[in-house]
Fold this protein.
Amino acid sequence: MRNLLVAQSGGPTAAINATLTGIFQSVRSSGKVDNVYGSKNGILGIIEGQLIELNELVRDTAATETLTLTPSAALGTCRYKMADWSKDEEPYKKIIEVFYKYEIKYFIYIGGNDSMDTVDKLSRYCVLKNYDFIIMGAPKTIDNDLNLTDHSPGYGSAAKYIATTIAELERDISAYNLPAVTIVEIMGRNAGWLTAAAALARINGGPGADLIYLCEKEFDTARFISDIKEKLAVKLGILVAVSEGIKDSTGAYISDRISNGEIDNFGHKYIAGAARSLGQLVKSEIGCKVRFIEFNLMQRSAAHITSETDITESILLGQKALNCAVDGETGRMAAIRRLHDNPYTVELISVPVSEVANQEKVVPLDWITPDGHDVTEELIAYIKPLIQGETNLKYENGIPKQIRLY
Amino acid sequence: MRNLLVAQSGGPTAAINATLTGIFQSVRSSGKVDNVYGSKNGILGIIEGQLIELNELVRDTAATETLTLTPSAALGTCRYKMADWSKDEEPYKKIIEVFYKYEIKYFIYIGGNDSMDTVDKLSRYCVLKNYDFIIMGAPKTIDNDLNLTDHSPGYGSAAKYIATTIAELERDISAYNLPAVTIVEIMGRNAGWLTAAAALARINGGPGADLIYLCEKEFDTARFISDIKEKLAVKLGILVAVSEGIKDSTGAYISDRISNGEIDNFGHKYIAGAARSLGQLVKSEIGCKVRFIEFNLMQRSAAHITSETDITESILLGQKALNCAVDGETGRMAAIRRLHDNPYTVELISVPVSEVANQEKVVPLDWITPDGHDVTEELIAYIKPLIQGETNLKYENGIPKQIRLY
């Protein structure tokens, strides 16, 4: 038997199910797969033997079309780091047992850096133990921090959400004639790719965010206050975008600052976000009206405003992963190589997953302006093609149509 | 001369510019208006003599089409409460002076309860002083709390954003296999209409929010904790929607609770939101993972996901306001009367603005379930028609096209 097992892992995105759809499409066209199974909640579901049969879904083209634009991980997700097999072989044995039980030949894991670590470890283990299972990775992360791929599927859609929402917020705050600072916190602990998307409205002549701070650059609060004062001198409504992961010169998160000594009614300390922390600072140092906004889970689940480019590529990466698997590649990840910016052209490749696992691709420092509070034209040119095009989302009773697998 | 002056006021919405477009359309078709002026930042702009000429924009159908789906108040907004003329006649005199200077015959003010108070006061003043200026109101508010109109323009689009985003968040949190509570805070200090939209995903068979608390009903924190525990016993990822204005039995905002004694690094007390306050409570009483999300300004500025029904009605209300004005009506507001739910049909009417000003239409208590943590089928049936249809938004470089007037 040549059965396929698929699973999803890490933080969900609006495009991760599109990659599942791509895998299903290539299953149909290749004719080289017998049955398709999905694992519930990533690798954990395999270890716990929680597989669901997906043959009917694979054949149902209408359902997979809805799946493509359903946000989050339809098979469920997990955050699970496998120990090295030499330290704890038990999970490996259980996985192999499940592979045999369900006659799995191919396993494709869709996820980010941590998930690629699992692909790496599991494929090495199989080689070492002479199991001929094929273990392939398909990339996914809104953070865009995966190595060896020009960009990561999911990122373009999240960037489109951010670019659009920043443009909308800019209109909102500019309607008032009072000095006010609005600070928006965008996901990214170590990589500022998403925060950089706050500049994109400039492509259309809008201002985008007035000040943009990525987590790659040391954050100086005194400099921040003087940046704000400078902007307020020429404009009333100031829009600031910050990565959640901005850190001071000691490497401490700015978001941790406000928690020092702060205790709620129930006697618990808690951590404010970076935006909230900075908002308190602006209130205290400048005294004008301040708002803090977090894009929170919306930035990764906004399937109603995905990028057509991103969704198309996410599907293609699923197809590529399946095609590589049936061609016998193992321990590799489907990836994107950019050939040209204008016209934007890419090719799909596969790369060794060992060089992706546990790596983080951050924004090059020379794509941040020397003053530290903006991004360069090069960075905008890099992101621009990734947010292009709108998807043909179906609505039902005024709300986007979704599918749930369990 | 029969010149028209338009202005916008109060919290911006994604539909308020559509009403401006409707006014412009009726200016073109009626032939009863000579020049069109806009006031910057609402009534304040008139008092300060800051008018901009809009004739070119009125004639430019392509620009007004873009204006229709540009979020926020294109003419700027203000929060300004006029004193009674007997207490302070100065602003009234300035307004009349500007009316004469620009040969204004008609003034249309687009806004909510406070703005309708301005329309009321100004129209009474004109009648009393024998000025034959026409003062008309056009409604606007995402809060849906305006009296004498079945619903308010802007509400349907905000409700569509909330229904869609709640459906997306539900998919996101359901992907994890850990007990977790996500609390979403939705705008509404006194009226829970927006929060009720968190139930709409159920129309399509989704769960929507698991628990919904409107600000109309007294909020009992002990009951809240037992509601959560009950849900967690049967489901892992719990989604809760609360109005920002939920209050305890003493009438105190839940959002104020956490501020007691809480001081930041800079020595300032601050107020947490309702969701954050409740999140701390859940952490303390239950101890599971908790997230708090605020829809913040996004819920009122998300022009990329407006309701076609809402935008169409917003345009029609602008047309109606202009038509009433040129027909000689003054001191009135354009409004919507619902004739049928199914098929949904409405008629446009005008109502005395004196009965709208300073009133608040809240959710009837019998549209909240007896257990206090959900809404009834009647409430869902009331909102459902208002979120129907998608607008033909134009994108430019992957970001929605917008217009800026100044």
Chain B has two domains: 3-141+303-358+391-400, 155-300.
